[in-house]
Amino acid sequence: MRLSEFFLPVLRETPNEAQIASHRFMLRAGMIRQSSAGIYSWLPLGYRVLKKIEAIVRDEQNRAGAHEVLMPTIQPAELWRESGRYDDYGKEMLRIKDRHGREMLYGPTNEEQITEIFRAAAKSYRDVPKLLYHIQWKFRDEVRPRFGIMRGREFLMKDCYSFDLDFESSKRAYNKMFVAYLKTFERMGLKAIPMAADTGPIGGDLSHEFIILADTGESEVFCHRDLMQMAVPQGVDYRADLQPIVDEWTSVYAAADEMHDPATCPVAEADLVSQRGIEVGHIFHFGSKYSKPMGLSVTGPDGVDTDVIMGSYGVGVSRLVGGIIEASHDDDGIIWPDSVAPFHVGIVNLKAGDADCDSMCADLEQKFRNAGLDVLVDDTGERAGAKFATMDLIGLPWQVVVGPRGLKDGQVEVKRRSEGERMALTPNAALDRVVSGTMLDPATTGLFPG
Ligand code: 5CA
Predict the structure, then answer these.
(1) Mean pLDDT, to the nearest integer, of 348-354?
(2) Closest CA to 249 of 221, 210, 218
(3) Domains of the chain
(4) What local confidence, expressed as pLDDT, does residue 203 receive?
């Protein structure tokens, strides 16, 4: 990709409205543009990251045995009257009327919608268990939308719903999502901690929030320091019993603020980590909370009808873009993990128009692309200082600097964004260094050909 053809409206100044690093850098790097309070357009750089995060979330859902659907953003009010939530949800729900005066709403979540879909098809115990998910825009008319896309009004969520015959089977679905979340966030370079949580308006009696630690987070979290060292399981067989993994993670104390009581906390003060965090996922088991009022039942093996047992499992896909930046940046800009980087490498042409520089850049670009890397070539006429500042701001994991002086000695410079210093290498050594130093994620490789 040539920067001269790309749309990257970077800002040199820090926008006044941005209070936290992720919001500031997303605006400055031309990733998003505000449309109205809490509602944003995604510009090409931001969109690439959003799509890569979505691809990793999708891949882990599929591995866990969930099947993707796509439900509408606009839902009929009757569905929510059936569950009794139409009145309960209050002002956060955006209510609208169509031209016939029918009451509709912009979905803040989809429990009712999926229950209606499954109700139309499920007849007997043979139709469960099932796991269905979608990745869709939601609208919640938050009182205080803030921090850019972190607490937006319109935001992208992955929500998965489980349907089971009994609690034991439903717990297996819950465990699959619990483990899939550990793996999902790890693939994005995040350390997410599962915490016992309050269930809020979604309801239910078993719930965990997945929280990444960051000073700018909205939640206060408390956990035993051992949790920070725990390893995410690899090569999981989702058909096997996952209870031991879940037990291991939940046996160590961790609680979000509303669940933490210093008087009864079992952890010694010296071992207790208390920090702020960002909620990037939330899983709920809620039994028959929706199936009972909405009449979703199946005939059991004994011929008796029984309410389907359900759970729902959310990931804040658009919030994760900000969460990753909060977890990985410095004063100059973003530092993307390889798996979600909008491009893996940025080639800086210090003398665009010079035949040798141009052909070296084109050659490197092609070779990186052959190796599966996404490449952005700065072929603009900007001065060097501005080009370096832009590269640092947009945070590509690697920079390769091509200039006439270096080329005379047969060298280019390579910089790892997270480390900072530049190394002079031959073009072949530079290629080798960058390609071997990049951890390509199969779900995000080749997502943006060209
Ligand atoms: N139906 C359930 C889960 S399927 C549900 O709606 N859960 S939730 O309310 O906890 O939202 C799921 C995730 O969406 C949260 O963990 C959070 O990461 C993200 N999220 C919630 N509200 C917002 C918001 N206003 N802006 C950005 N992300 C949000």
Answers:
(1) 98
(2) 210
(3) 3-333 (3.30.930.10), 343-437 (3.40.50.800)
(4) 57
